[in-house]
Amino acid sequence: MYKYTHETVVDADIDSTFEWFEHEGSFRRLMPPWEVAEEVRADDSLEVGSQRVFRFPAPGAPFLKMTWVAEHTAYRPPHHFADTMVKGPFWSWNHNHDLIESGGKTTVKDEVTYQVPFGPLGNLADSILGGWLVKSRISKMFRARELRLQRDMKEHSKFSHEERKKILVAGSSGLIGTQLVAFLDTGGHDVWRLVRRPVKEGTKELFWKPDEGILNPSDIEGFDVIIHLGGAGIGDKRWSKKRKALIIDSRRDSTLLLSDTMSKLDKKPEAFIVASAIGYYGNRGDEELTEDSSPGSGFLTDTVIQWESYADSAKESGIRVVNTRNGIVLSAAGGALGRMLLPWKMGGGGPLAGGKQWMSWISLDDEIYAIHHLMMNRDCVGAYNLTAPNPCKQKVFSKTLGRVLRRPAFAPIPGISMKILFGELAGPLLIEGQRVLPSRLQSSGYEFLHKDLESALRDSLGIWR
């Protein structure tokens, strides 16, 4: 049997800290950011008998899924709760959480006792490696948990004096939506999901079918904020005529339906936040671009211009509309970075198409916190670039990623190869670029967590110095 302990000091009182853990979203927020985990079920309680279930790729065999079932075994708020592994990769896993307040701060002490798989054989294998293999993974996991808890609590504290909001999120199952819903939930907001599949009984879900114009106005009456992150993925598949039509139609149908419906409500939401993209600016070389810059040209630019206009009816009815022009969101669990990792880890990374094009990126936590900032600040309206203040050229991105992964970064990928592989989308998404700055976001008072690329990559991958 092995034991591991970890302490996290949070700049908050014990009641607020314990309350953060009690929210269903805490489970997702505490998941290491590099884990591609699927949440199967999470009871909205830490009380004895409640369970949380998730699936994740098996180490060394990402195509095999493992299930972890955790059941809570002790509950003494605000000082203690505990859980045990009912099913999972370890032979046993018992986790105690103790909270101690002193001087207005709270220490969260995690104590885990566990037994590695395969009994004596597993112990032997682990001892040969000096106990390093399993313990290093656990240590990385708890370091990530520490950072997320501290940062989330700090971000929530900025608006603790404001009333909690009732929020509806469309596109909640995506890379950004999953983390945004979890984060808002841990802040005490009443968060609902707008879904296209049948609604799960007993959940905070509402049904719609935007391609058929189906949305019950009474369902969305009374929400303070509606956030729309949906739309067919721009870089998920090659651009055929059919795919390009789907990219446009999915944004038009869904955004117009939400905008027109809420504009006619007796009790309208205070804010409508709609995801957009820096594709608005087109291919601009070394030109520094802010929200005041003119649009570019091409399919992506035209798509974004129309996309943002679909919320006009909400704007004209007096609803505060915010368009978040997203850059490349960095996450090891998906998106552009997630797709890069396997070839890079195998030593096949390098600059794309010469590497002179600009990449305007943002860390996933900055993306989430920036949306929260724009939501809570009533003076924020219009378009905001959600990109870090230090964009970089693609060759710099490649070199930095190689340094973080300790892998070579000199295997160039010619532009012609990308055009053959990806077709038309290779141009605006991979070969061309924009040097976009978050001018309005910073002017509104938002302070970035990750201003430089290396710290963002290390945080996402769990490779801290």
What is the domain total for the residues? 2
Strand content: 25-35%
Q: What structural class do you assign from the helix and strand content?
A: alpha/beta
**CATH topological fold name of the largest domain:** Rossmann fold
**CATH architecture grouping of the largest domain:** 3-Layer(aba) Sandwich
Query: Any idea what the CATH superfamily of the largest domain is called?
Result: NAD(P)-binding Rossmann-like Domain
What is the CATH domain class of the largest domain? Alpha Beta
Residue-averaged pLDDT, rounded?
A: 92
Low-confidence stretches: none
Gyration radius from CA atoms, angstroms = 23 Å
Q: Which bin fits the share of residues in helices?
A: 25-40%
Basic shape: globular
* Spatial order of the strands forming the largest sheet: 11-10-9-8-12-13-15-19
DSSP helix count? 16
What summary fits the major beta sheet?
8 strands, mixed
Number of strands: 21
- State the end-to-end distance: 30 Å
Describe this structure in words.
It is built from 16 helices and 21 strands. With 465 residues, it is an alpha/beta fold. The chain has an 8-stranded mixed β-sheet with strand order 11-10-9-8-12-13-15-19, with helices on both faces. A 7-stranded antiparallel β-sheet has the order 1-7-6-5-4-3-2. Strands 14-21 form a two-stranded parallel sheet. The two termini are 30 Å apart. The model has no long low-confidence stretch (mean pLDDT 92).
Describe this protein with a few key phrases:
465 residues; alpha/beta; Alpha-D-Glucose-1,6-Bisphosphate, Chain A, domain 4; Rossmann fold; 2 domains; eight-stranded mixed beta sheet; 26% strand
